[in-house]
């Protein structure tokens, strides 16, 4: 039997562990909070993140990383992106030599500006063919409720992507393979930043024209950055690009969209952070995405104003003026 260890008992980590278990993969969840681990392991529920939903009886949970990693073929990482480096360093010694490391995280590391797969390769000291990423329009609660969804599993080694595809394919969750790890990761990370912008606009009471403009021009920003970093531009028209962008920018289940809405309504950053129970990755990653763009001379005006609103005291109204007063340009440039 294929075995998997999933690190992170948040909504997406728990949901993906459920998918693996339902697909016949022997799956163990690792969590740092004993009460959550006990609820999953003994009562087959995660009351903090997926209340009222029954988890598979075959799904195990433990607070011991060595126990979780024992014999694992896939090591699935679903922790907040900015904590990955420290956590993975602590777990590295127990990772089986044959295991594929799988990132569910959608962020860019602050300081290094590295994608999550790059951090994994550096910290775990593994080659790129042992690192895979999963990204797409995957709102955890809908999938945990067995609503149909699709995703992309990406690895530079297509055979590894196909193995992971088989391990997480169930009737309500359809994974597609891709070898463009760069594009799949960038789509997942940058769409969180664009969702913040769309949320701010919605919170200000602005209409569908503005939201559609932000999403479309946001996709242009993602594509420009991806082109410079060697991504396949077709990836951004797929599930990990436009698909994920639509879901995250439009759904009330989206943490980043909701975070932005609260900012647009006039709440301070501290107030929104206090009201947010789960990590909105775009809040921190917007700075590292902008820094990454700066390193490669890529123009990302929406990302720039999001950083201004979230971190530098720019008001949403001022951000709107800055975007609308930019010099005229052709629709397609910088690619």
UniProtKB/TrEMBL annotation:
It catalyses: sn-glycerol 3-phosphate + NAD(+) = dihydroxyacetone phosphate + NADH + H(+); sn-glycerol 3-phosphate + NADP(+) = dihydroxyacetone phosphate + NADPH + H(+). Residues 3-160 form the Glycerol-3-phosphate dehydrogenase NAD-dependent N-terminal domain. Residues 180-319 form the Glycerol-3-phosphate dehydrogenase NAD-dependent C-terminal domain. InterPro entries: 6-PGluconate_DH-like_C_sf, 6PGD_dom2, G3P_DH_NAD-dep, G3P_DH_NAD-dep_C, G3P_DH_NAD-dep_N, NAD(P)-bd_dom_sf. It is found in: Cytoplasm. Pfam families: NAD_Gly3P_dh_C, NAD_Gly3P_dh_N. One of its GO terms (biological process) is glycerol-3-phosphate biosynthetic process. NAD(+) binds at residues 8-13, 140, 255. Its EC number is 1.1.1.94. NADPH binds at residues 11-12, 32-33, 49, 106, 140, 255, 281. It is an enzyme of class 1 (oxidoreductase). PROSITE patterns: NAD_G3PDH (PS00957). Sn-glycerol 3-phosphate binds at residues 106, 136, 191, 244, 254-256. Keywords: Cytoplasm, Lipid biosynthesis, Lipid metabolism, NAD, NADP, Nucleotide-binding, Oxidoreductase, Phospholipid biosynthesis, Phospholipid metabolism. Belongs to the NAD-dependent glycerol-3-phosphate dehydrogenase family. Catalyzes the reduction of the glycolytic intermediate dihydroxyacetone phosphate (DHAP) to sn-glycerol 3-phosphate (G3P), the key precursor for phospholipid synthesis. This is Glycerol-3-phosphate dehydrogenase [NAD(P)+]. It comes from Sinosporangium siamense.
């Amino acid at each position: 039997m294929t075995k998997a260890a999933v690190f992170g008992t948040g909504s997406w980590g728990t949901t993906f562990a459920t998918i693996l278990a339902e697909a016949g993969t022997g799956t163990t969840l690792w969590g740092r909070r004993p009460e959550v681990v006990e609820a999953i392991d003994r009562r087959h529920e995660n009351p903090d993140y997926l209340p009222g939903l029954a988890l598979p009886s075959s799904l195990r949970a433990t607070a011991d990383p060595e126990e979780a990693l024992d014999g694992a073929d896939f090591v699935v990482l679903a922790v907040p992106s900015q904590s990955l480096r420290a956590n993975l360093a602590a777990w590295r010694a127990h990772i089986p030599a044959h295991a594929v490391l799988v990132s569910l995280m959608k962020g860019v590391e602050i300081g290094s500006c590295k994608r999550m797969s790059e951090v994994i390769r550096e910290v775990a000291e593994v080659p790129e063919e042992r690192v895979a990423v999963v990204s797409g329009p995957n709102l955890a609660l809908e999938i945990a409720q067995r609503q149909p969804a699709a995703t992309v599993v990406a690895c530079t080694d297509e055979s590894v992507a196909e193995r992971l595809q088989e391990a997480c394919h169930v009737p309500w969750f359809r994974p597609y393979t891709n070898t463009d790890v760069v594009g799949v990761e960038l789509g997942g990370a940058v769409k969180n930043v664009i969702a913040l912008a769309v949320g701010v606009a919605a919170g200000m009471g602005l209409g569908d024209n503005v939201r559609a403009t932000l999403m479309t021009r946001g996709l242009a920003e993602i594509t420009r950055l991806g082109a410079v970093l060697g991504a396949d531009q077709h990836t951004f028209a797929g599930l990990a690009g436009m698909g994920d962008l639509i879901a995250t920018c439009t759904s009330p289940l989206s943490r980043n969209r909701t975070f932005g809405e609260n900012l647009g309504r006039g709440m301070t950053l501290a107030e929104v952070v206090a009201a947010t129970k789960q990590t909105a990755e775009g809040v921190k990653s917007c700075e590292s995405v902008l820094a990454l763009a700066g390193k490669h001379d890529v123009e990302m005006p929406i990302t720039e104003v999001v950083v201004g609103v979230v971190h530098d005291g720019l008001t949403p109204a001022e951000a709107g003026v800055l975007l609308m007063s930019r010099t005229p340009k052709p629709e397609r440039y910088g690619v």
